[in-house]
Amino acid sequence: MNDPTTTPHPVLLAKDLRKSYRMGAGKLDVLRGVSMDLHVGEVAALMGSSGSGKSTLLQLLGLMDSCDGGSVLLRGRRIDGRSAGASARIRASEIGFVFQQFQLIQELSALENVLLPRRIARGMSWFSQRREERRKATQLLNDVGLGARLRHRPNQLSGGEQQRVAIARALVSMPPVVLADEPTGNLDRQTGTEVLELLLRMARERGTAILLATHDPAIAESCERILQLEDGQLVLPTSEQTSTP
C-alpha cells in the first residue's frame, strides 16, 4: 500500500464543509466547518454518534448533496457545485459507494447492477464497449465470490451476497476513492467481518482510498486513521485530522 505520509497531495480534500437543513422555522446545522483529507491507498474510519453528521459528510464528498459552504477537491480539482449530470458522471467513474442498505436495483441482475456505473460513465460509447465492460464486471464478481450468481437478482441473494455485489459495483470503475457508509450495519457479525475484510483487501490491492463511516470501534481499529465527528465538527487534533493547513 502507498504510505499516505509520503504522498504529496491528497486524493480527496474537503475544506470547511458546512451543511444545514431547515427545521420548521429554525435551522439545523449538521456540519459546521469540516476539513479533512484522504490519501492514495489510505483507509480511514469516520466515527461519531447517530446524528453527528457522518452520512451527511459522505453525501457531500460523493456529490450526492450540495454543501452550503466550503469545497471538495478530487485529485486536485474542485468537484463540488457542478450540475446534476456532471456530478453523476464523476460518481460513476471516480467515486465508489458502499451503503448499509446495499442500494441495489431489484429489477436488475447482479451483473447488471455492477455494470450500471459503467453505463453512466460511458454514455453513448457504452454500446461499442459493452462486451469489454461485461468481461471486467464478470471478473470482478468472480473476485468477490459470486461468479456463479451473475444472473441472480438481489431478492435471490443473501445480505452478505448483496453487499458483495455492492462492493463489486463500487470498484468496477477503478475509482481512486470509495465511500462506505456503515457497510456491515445490516449484516451479522461473522458475515460483516468477511465483507469488511473483502472490501479492504480489494481496495488495497487497487490502491483505492477508503473513507468508512462506522460506529463500531472494532471496525475503526482495522483502519489506519480514525476521524471523530461530534456535533458537526471533527474533534481530533488538527495534526491527526488532516495534513492540510
Structure report:
This protein is an alpha/beta fold. The protein has one domain (9-241): Rossmann fold, CATH 3.40.50. 37% of the residues lie in helices and 25% in strands. The protein has helices spanning 54-61, 84-94, 110-122, 126-143, 159-171, 189-206, 217-221, 238-241; strands spanning 12-23, 26-38, 43-47, 69-74, 77-78, 95-99, 177-181, 209-213, 225-230, 233-234. The strands form two sheets. Strands 6-7-8-3-9-10 form a six-stranded mixed sheet, sandwiched between helices. A hairpin with a 2-residue loop joins strand 1 (12-23) and strand 2 (26-38). Helix 2 (84-94) crosses helix 3, helix 3 crosses helix 4 and helix 3 (110-122) runs parallel beside helix 5. The two termini are 25 Å apart. The relative contact order is 0.20. The model is unreliable at 1-7 and 237-245 (pLDDT under 50).
How would you concisely characterize the structure shown here?
The protein is an alpha/beta fold. The protein contains 8 helices and 10 strands.
